[in-house]
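Project standup — Tuesday

K.O.: blocked on the structure for the chain from last sprint. Re-posting the sequence here as requested.
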Amino acid sequence: MKKLSLVIPCYNEAKSLEALTDRALQCAKKRELTPEQFELVIVDNGSSDGTDQVIDSLMKGPDKRFLHPVHVEKNQGYGFGLFSGLRAARGGTLAWTHADEQCDPEDVFIAWELQQKRGEKCLVKGRRYERAFGDMLFSRGFELVAIVLLGQYVHEINAQPKVFDASLMKSVTNPPYGFPFDLYVLLKAKEAGMTLESIPVRFPPRKHGQSRWASTFRSKFKTIAGMVRFMWDYRRSNTKIGKPLGISTFL
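H.V.: unblocked you, prediction finished:
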């Protein structure tokens, strides 16, 4: 079994993918990880911009043994693509981050080193800084809704990376296909008795393309509505959440 699998879901990230892959493999090699110990799971999540061609080119390169491509024929959402990659991963520890170059793969390995020290009952995630005020307000709004509907303060829900023991996937059985996937996994981690720790991560502006869920007022409204609906449905389906809870802090 490999030590670490890093899953990166890609939707129309052809311009970013080669540089991102180079950076991830550079970080792995710096830690002397071999293809038998580390894999980069690249998920083509139904892209239409030639992402598949970039992946094909990478698979012909000298580092192809590190790469594990996963092709999703039709985009069914961020969560579906990510779940597809996690199910295909072969590592004892799993991680994911984004493909838009806002998230440095180095953060994944820093988080992984901390997670290895803490053990299988710890999930390590990012805690973003140097963000625009509007983006921070957006995140704080999700956290407030989580307090109201779930009785939990879940800090920086969508901050990357996420790094955790592969055993958690036994609980990830019916995830949302969209943006709430991160929150779903964090809730499942808590239910499994895992502690959460965070590392500070820088979150610069995108170099290419636009965010699907926060680029316009309409997309932001749709994202907010989807998150609120997911929290409400999760509360209704989970008897523990449905009862009054103290505030549990995700750092």
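K.O.: great, moving the ticket to review. Residues 242-251 have pLDDT under 50 and may be disordered. Residues 2-250 form a domain with the Spore Coat Polysaccharide Biosynthesis Protein SpsA; Chain A fold (CATH 3.90.550.10).
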